[in-house]
Design goal:
Layout (H helix, E strand, L loop, with lengths): L5 E7 L5 H4 E8 L7 E10 L2 H10 L14 E8 L10 E5 L2 H6 L8 E5 L3 E3 L6 H4 L3 H14 L7 E5 L4 H12 L3 E6 L4 H6 L4 E4 L5 H7 L6 E6 L7 H4 L5 E9 L9 H13 L10 E4 L6 H12 L7 E6 L3 H9 L6 E5 L6
The structure holds NADP nicotinamide-adenine-dinucleotide phosphate.
């Protein structure tokens, strides 16, 4: 099959918000492959907060040269297997890690993307490319947060703050798949969505400060794991957690997200989490950060759970390639329930 030299791709031309810095360019070179990489004809790409909140907004030009193609998650067809274990024509999904996106200026929001063969797996046939595109980064974050960081065991009790976030939605399904009891929060309008993912109990975080609600109604069996997937900078959920997190229990965060340059907030957080000794009133529970690691064996396990129907895709909305800026508007509302997906190949399911 002869491959084009030139493709259409979204590129960030400066540092800033997607609507100000992203351009759709129809004269972008198709990536050349290094050893161990394959070329994917992208069918669908999914958006992640890290792209618009961190990479586009904060990484200076001397670290990430412009223009570059944004985004990580993709589903597509291998069109140059480049002597890897894949064959041309394999239908795959996976994600370009943040490190490769920044160092090698690789991105998923393009007709063609190069990606390490170790960062993709064959797409299970029970999910379409549009559904599959949104699974890898968020599901692997949930998987690693629960198992690698929190060492979750079957039958344990888990609280998921942000049951309707993409990470939280995958976490509910993964925890339920090993028989855990799951309680999750979201705003009231998302109760049936969160319960449909398997949550046994629901807490509406809008009815009062969540740490106070939980402390006033502690569960008879305190949680073994508290997974914070919203990105709260405010520390009350952690500092009050002795009331609802069991001794030895672990508080895992996907990473507090300051709104702007909040030195005071970050300092408070550092004091509460890392510095304040327990004898000086520090919280007697362990706080840990999950940073997703693109480990092939975890992507394989996630794909197996998708194939088994244990992990169902979470698609909030789908936008055509030319409308990627509308997709960014949607994810930036912070109200999506599941993944915001961009259909790169309009013929794809
Ligand atoms: N560390 C890592 O490796 C890693 C990897 C992936 C993601 N992340 C981070 O994890 C966070 C979640 O990412 P995502 O893509 O899953 O998010 P997302 O899907 O964009 O989250 C949107 C959801 O957040 C919910 N939400 C907003 N405020 C809430 C609150 N105070 N309490 C409970 N739910 C709330 C909204 O529900 P309502 O409308 O009901 O409020 C909405 O459904 C982000 O901060 C992201 O940067 C980190």
């Amino acid at each position: 099959m002869s491959l084009p030299q030139i493709q259409k791709a979204w590129r960030a031309t400066a540092k800033g918000e997607p609507s100000k810095v992203l351009r759709l360019d129809d004269n972008v070179p198709v990536p050349k492959l290094n050893r161990g990489e394959v070329l994917i004809k992208v069918q669908a790409a999914a958006l992640n907060p890290v792209a618009y909140k961190v990479i586009m907004k904060l990484i200076p030009n001397f670290i990430l040269k412009k223009p570059y193609i944004p985004e990580h998650d993709l589903a597509g067809i291998v069109v140059d297997a480049n002597d890897t274990e894949f064959q041309d024509g394999d239908e795959v999904f996976g994600f370009i890690p943040v490190s490769a996106a920044v160092k090698e200026r690789k991105g998923a929001l393009a007709q063609y993307a190069s990606i390490s063969a170790s960062h993709i797996v064959r797409r299970p046939v029970n999910v379409t490319p549009t559904q599959a595109a949104g699974i890898p980064l968020a599901a692997m974050t949930a998987y690693q947060a629960l198992f690698d960081v929190a060492h979750l065991k079957p039958e344990q009790h888990v609280f998921i703050n942000g049951g309707s976030t993409a990470v939280g939605g995958f976490a509910i399904q993964i925890a339920k798949s090993i028989g855990c009891k799951v309680v999750a929060s979201a705003s009231g309008k998302n109760e049936s969505y969160v319960r449909s993912l398997g949550a046994d109990e629901f807490v509406d975080y809008t009815t009062g400060p969540l740490h106070a609600t939980l402390a006033a109604n502690p569960p008879s069996q305190k949680y073994h794991v508290f997974l914070e997937t919203v990105g709260l900078l405010e520390t009350s959920l952690y500092t009050s957690s002795e009331a609802y997190l069991a001794p030895g229990g672990i508080f895992v965060s996907t990473g507090p997200q300051p709104k702007g340059f909040d030195i005071a907030g970050l300092s408070r957080l550092a004091w509460k989490i890392f510095l304040q000794p327990r004898w000086l009133g520090g919280t007697k529970r362990t706080w840990k950060l999950i940073q997703v690691d693109n480990k092939h064996e975890d992507l394989v396990k996630v794909a197996e759970q998708v194939a088994d129907g244990k992990i169902k895709p979470l698609v909030d909305s789908v936008y055509n390639f030319d409308d990627a800026l509308k997709a960014y508007e949607r994810i930036m509302t912070g109200r999506a329930t599941g993944k915001v997906v961009v259909k790169v190949d309009l013929e794809t399911e």
